[in-house]
Structure formats: C-alpha cells, structure tokens
Write a structure and sequence with these properties.
Strand content: 15-25%
Structural class: alpha/beta
Radius of gyration: 19 Å
Oligomer: single chain
Distance between the termini: 43 Å
Shape: globular
CATH class of the largest domain: Alpha Beta
Bound molecules: nicotinamide-adenine-dinucleotide
Length: 305
C-alpha cells in the first residue's frame, strides 16, 4: 500500500466514540460533490473508550493506508496529539486536535473547531466585541477550542461540573498564560444564574442535550425566570451540540427571546476548513445555508424528528 492514497480515490474518516450520531460523512460527501471530487468517502471509525491501544493503531493506519486525513472527535482530541508528527500552532494553543492531514505519511494536526465556533457565533449572532462577557459551560475539547479562538473579551466565566473541576482549573492555567482573563466556577444552579445575569454570550460546550439524551439541558425555566426575560432577550446563546439540530438549551433561550445559534454551523465552518486542508478545495461560504438545510433534513430523517 502506498504512503499516499492514489488521487483517483479520496478517503477521510471520523475517529471517536460515539460516532454513530454524526452527520459529517454526509457533509463531506456533499463538499466533494460541490467541489467536483469524485470517488470521495468519509468513514466513521469507532474506537471504544476501553480500547485506547486501538487509537494508536488507527492513527498509524491513516498514514499506512494513505487516507487524506481525519477528523477526531470526543473523547480523543487531547489523547491523539501524542501520535502526530507535526503539531500546528492551533493545536499548541488549544491543546486539542480535531483535524489531521496525512502529508506523505506524516500526520499533521490542526484544530479547526475554534475557527468553526467563532465563525458560527459571529455570523449567526453578532460579532464579538472587547466589552463582551462570555460564559462557557464545559472545559473539555470543544470549550478549549472556543476559548482558545475567542478574540479579546472583557470577561470569561467557565462553569464545569464538580467531578471534572480539575479540567476547568487546568484550562484556566493554560489560557491565563496566553493573556486571557478567566474565572472558573462550579456548575451549580446559583452559579448558572449569576453568570448568565452578567453575560452577553452563553455557550454550551458540554454534550448535555446531545442525541440520544435530547431532553437534557443545563439550563431550566426556573433559571431564566429568576434572571428575567428583559435580560435574556439581549443575549446570544450558542450550543456546540449539533444533533439534535435545536437542543433544549437553545429552545428555551429562544422562548425567552434570545438569539440562538445551533452547533451545526460550527460543524459546517470547521468542516469547510478541514476539507480545504485535506483537499485544497474551497467550499464557498455562500453554500453554508444550503449545506445546513441538507444536514438538518438528514438529522431529522436519520434520528426521527
Ligand atoms: P469532552 O468530553 O472533551 O468535554 C466535555 C465537557 O463537558 C467536560 O468539561 C465535562 O466535564 C462536561 N460534561 C460532560 N457531561 C456533563 C454533564 N452531564 N453535565 C455537565 N457537564 C458535563 O467533549 P468535547 O469534545 O468538548 O465535546 C462537547 C460537545 O461539543 C459534544 O456534544 C460534541 O459533539 C460537541 N462538539 C461539536 C462540534 C461541532 O462542530 N458542532 C465540535 C466539537 C464538539
């Protein structure tokens, strides 16, 4: 098998656990169609959390089988870094990899998630300003990507569940070195209310609300009732979760008059960047709504809505 796939066949993959809920295979095949690439395939490779040795083997296989590259999803965005040959500055800054390019058998790691999230927020909500106050739920790979890609804001609060609080402290330590002002708080009802009361943007970067547990949400009506509609309606809410298309978190925010942005936009913008890194082909941003409609239809038909 050659080190680089013959260009009559283009293969990329998604590595993670779970991967079943992802619609990125559909998205990348559509990108290939839009950019005139034939014989393109995007595989889903599930590596059980109990089988970490298989992550190493799969990373090696990307190079050996000549895949063009891979997307890495949870829970391997940090663990996969040690198997890279070259680490781009986005991975250095964020501490997580989500896109791997196979360049003549050498694996180069990038992070396109942060770019995708900020582009989604700024396109669908509004541009971020230096006076903005941002609240992020979660301190894992997605939170690190978003925080590591935020422009300078006036205040950043990270709320994480007590059982993973060390993760939030590590995030704070890493990003304070980069000059960001970060406050970390435990994810309690009281802290949720006080943080949202002071915020301009609220971001969910946890898997809460993700398929199949689509009824779950970190915020409830009681939180919003104690903050008040007049405050909520001026805020922007973004959820990194892309399946379902509209999470309970976003539905509730919308009911209280807030502007909302679903995670599918983060996936599309990160995907456009990853696809360009793999293939050199540019998917026009003018196609984003068309891709969003197709993905939303796919999610609804595959996962029954
Ligand atoms: P991760 O496992 O690295 O981190 C998850 C974080 O959520 C951790 O801080 C953890 O403490 C917290 N968390 C997990 N379960 C929780 C719960 N029940 N209550 C409170 N906090 C909880 O995962 P990640 O890679 O950061 O992904 C988070 C979510 O973002 C996933 O749903 C993932 O699919 C989504 N995501 C979407 C995109 C996109 O393109 N839209 C990209 C990356 C990640």
């Amino acid at each position: 098998m050659s080190k680089q796939q013959s260009r009559s066949q283009f293969v990329t993959c998604l590595i993670g656990d779970p991967v079943e809920h992802s619609v990125s295979d559909f998205m990348f095949r559509y990108f290939a169609k839009l950019t005139g690439i034939e014989n393109y395939n995007h595989l889903k490779i599930k590596i059980s959390k109990a089988d970490l040795e298989n992550l190493k083997i799969t990373m090696k296989a990307i190079a050996v089988f000549g895949f063009m590259g891979a997307n890495i999803t949870l829970p391997y965005k940090e663990k996969a870094i040690k198997y890279l040959d070259i680490i781009d500055k986005t991975v250095q800054r964020i501490g997580a990899v989500n896109t791997i390019v196979n360049k003549k058998g050498k694996l180069i790691g990038y992070n396109t998630d942060g770019h995708g999230a900020i582009k989604a927020v700024e396109t669908k909500l509004r541009p971020l300003k230096s006076a903005d106050r941002v609240v992020v739920f979660g301190a894992g790979g997605a939170a690190r990507a978003i925080i590591g890609s935020l422009p300078q804001v006036s205040h950043l609060t990270v709320l994480n569940r007590p059982s993973d609080f060390n993760q939030a402290e590590k995030l704070k330590k890493d990003f304070i070195k980069c000059g960001s002002r970060i406050e970390t708080k435990s994810l309690t009802d009281r802290n949720i209310v006080s943080a949202i009361r002071e915020a301009d943007f609220v971001i969910n970067a946890t898997p809460v609300g993700m398929y199949p547990k689509t009824g779950a949400s970190l915020i409830y009506k009681s939180h919003f009732d104690s903050i008040g509609r007049s405050r909520i309606k001026n805020l922007g809410f973004f959820d990194a979760v892309f399946n379902p298309f509209e999470t309970e978190f976003l539905k509730l925010a919308k009911q209280y008059g807030a502007k909302t942005c679903p995670g599918i936009y983060m996936m599309i913008y990160q995907g456009i960047k990853a696809f360009r890194l793999w293939t050199g082909k540019v998917v026009s941003e003018g196609k984003v709504e068309e891709v969003r409609r197709l993905l939303q239809k796919t999610i609804n038909s595959r996962y029954g809505k």
